[in-house]
Amino acid sequence: MIGKLNHVAIAVPDLEAAADLYRNTLGATVSEAVDQPDHGVTTVFIELPNTKIELLHPLGENSPIAGFLAKNPAGGMHHVCYEVDDITAAAEKLKADGLRILGDGNPKIGAHGKPVLFLHPKDLCGTLVELEEV
Amino acid sequence: MIGKLNHVAIAVPDLEAAADLYRNTLGATVSEAVDQPDHGVTTVFIELPNTKIELLHPLGENSPIAGFLAKNPAGGMHHVCYEVDDITAAAEKLKADGLRILGDGNPKIGAHGKPVLFLHPKDLCGTLVELEEV
C-alpha cells in the first residue's frame, strides 16, 4: 500500500534559524516560508534529491503543533508522510485492521492540497504517520 | 553538503510486531531482522521506492537506544540519516560552524559498514541527525 516517503516533518521553535541551518550549515536547498492559515502552520521545505524535509512552525492560535513544541521546546521530528495511490481504499484497509484515523476518521485536504489522513501514533510504533494520495 | 535521505530510524519495543505492521497492514517490503552486536541494536529495514525506514530494537546490555525506549515506551522516531560524499570534510565544516559531533568528535564505522557521525540534537532543531558517507 505505502509508496514513497513524501516527507519527514520537523517542528521547530525558530523557523528562520532552522532554515538558515539547513541552507548554510548543511548546504541543502531550502524553500521560502509559506503560511498555511487553514492548517495553523508555516512551512519551509528542504529539498533533498530523493524526498523532502518539512519544517513546521506554529501559525496563529490553536496550531496543531503548539502542544508538540510545548513538550519539545527545542523542536523534534513530528511525523512521516507516506504516499498512497488511493487514500479511500487505504483508509478502509487500515480501519479494518484496527488502526485509528485521527479526526472524524475520513481523509481531508492537507497542507499540499491533496487528500491526506493521519494515523494514531499509538497504533504505529509511537510514530505519527500521514498518508497522502498522489 | 547533505544529499539523499538515507533512512529514518524508528525505535520500537516489539520488533516482530512492528515488522508485521509494516509488512501486512501498510503493505511495504520488509527485510529480515539482523542483529548488530557491535552497535547494540537489531535492525529491520522497510524498503520504500525512494528511501528506507530502519526499525531499531535494543540488543544486549548498554544498547544506545535503551534510554530512548525507556522515555518513549511505545517507540518513536529516533534519528534521520543524510548522505554525504566526504564525511571528513563534512565533520570539519560542521565543527567550524559550532555543531557538536557525538562521541569523540570523529566519524566511526556505522551499522551499515560505512563511515558515519551523529550530531547533537540540540544543535539541529531537537533532531538526532546521522551523516553517512556513501
Automatic annotation (TrEMBL), chains A, B:
It catalyses: (R)-methylmalonyl-CoA = (S)-methylmalonyl-CoA. It is an enzyme of class 5 (isomerase). Keywords: Cobalt, Isomerase, Metal-binding. Gene3D superfamilies: 2,3-Dihydroxybiphenyl 1,2-Dioxygenase, domain 1. NCBIfam families: metmalonyl_epim. Residues 4-134 form the VOC domain. One of its GO terms (biological process) is L-methylmalonyl-CoA metabolic process. Belongs to the methylmalonyl-CoA epimerase family. It comes from Emcibacter nanhaiensis. SUPFAM superfamilies: Glyoxalase/Bleomycin resistance protein/Dihydroxybiphenyl dioxygenase (SSF54593). Its EC number is 5.1.99.1. This is methylmalonyl-CoA epimerase. The keyword Acyltransferase does not apply. One of its GO terms (molecular function) is metal ion binding.
